[in-house]
Write a structure and sequence with these properties.
The structure holds 2 protein chains of 2 kinds.
Chain A lengths: L2 E4 L4 E4 L4 E3 L1 E4 L5 E7 L5 E7 L5 E4 L2 E4 L9 E3 L8 E9 L2 E4 L3 E6 L1
Chain B lengths: L3 E4 L2 E4 L5 E7 L6 E7 L5 E8 L5 E2 L8 E7 L2 E6 L8 E8 L8 E2 L3 E5 L1
Parallel strand pairs in B: 2-11
Antiparallel strand pairs in B: 1-3, 3-8, 4-5, 4-9, 5-6, 7-8, 9-10, 9-11
The chains are: A mainly beta, B mainly beta.
């Protein structure tokens, strides 16, 4: 069945470090792909999305490219800040529903 | 734009009572709303999908008589946890989709339910 796999966390980085959170997916057809972010005690916020192969989603310095050949949608940021500390969820949309990865906790230390 | 609110943000109730959680789309009409449950440090589990004016579609393993969902208007969906028990304690999150054919779901801030 359709699924999303994210790298396990927590990921701990120093401020201004480069961030990569890996996400791979299994799906029939051509799903849309998403990254959502969840700050402590809050709901999910859409961070970025891509709807077809080779699309690049970007927002707030974060980027992810829809790679059909490797079925991946890795999240990257060139220089993280303490305020980026949160849980990041990769997700795909199939038949109108979202399927989430297990989430990756990012901790950024000053 | 695309703001979804939930009320209450947290609730504590006694075992055996019922609790209603509201989900509203504030600046768009939500053709479809979703209800999720999230356990601590875990991912979101889809409970049900509701379309305005029709019965909700529940995911396998979710008790429809326990988790009553009503989507009476294009901006409001409610989840009622009936006869709540401590194992129902969780973080409940709703989301909403607007335009037909759009994939993006917009999430509410969540409701923390604690059943004593």
């Amino acid at each position: 069945g359709d699924s999303v796999t994210q790298m396990e966390g927590p990921v701990t980085l120093s401020e201004e470090a480069f961030l990569t959170i890996n996400c791979t997916y299994t799906a029939t057809g051509y799903p849309s792909l998403f990254w959502y972010v969840q700050y402590p005690g809050e709901g999910l916020q859409l961070l970025l999305k891509a709807t077809k192969a080779d699309d690049k989603g970007s927002n707030k310095g974060f980027e992810a490219t829809y790679r059909k050949e490797t079925t991946s949608f890795h999240l990257e940021k060139g220089s993280v800040q303490v305020s980026d500390s949160a849980v990041y969820f990769c997700a795909l949309s199939v038949s109108g529903k979202l399927i989430f990865g297990q989430g990756t906790t990012l901790q950024v230390k000053p | 734009g695309a703001v979804v609110s939930q009320h209450p943000s947290w609730v504590i109730c006694k075992s055996g009572t019922s609790v209603k959680i509201e989900c509203r789309s504030l600046d768009f009409q939500a053709t479809t709303m979703f209800w999720y449950r999230q356990f601590p440090k875990q991912s979101l589990m889809l409970m049900a999908t509701s379309n305005e004016g029709s019965k909700a579609t529940y995911e396998q393993g979710v008790e429809k008589d326990k988790f009553l969902i009503n989507h009476a208007s294009l901006t409001l969906s409610t989840l009622t946890v009936t006869s709540a028990h401590p194992e129902d304690s969780s973080f409940y999150i709703c989301s909403a989709k607007g335009l037909a054919g759009e994939d993006t779901q917009y999430f509410g801030p969540g409701t923390r339910l604690t059943v004593l």
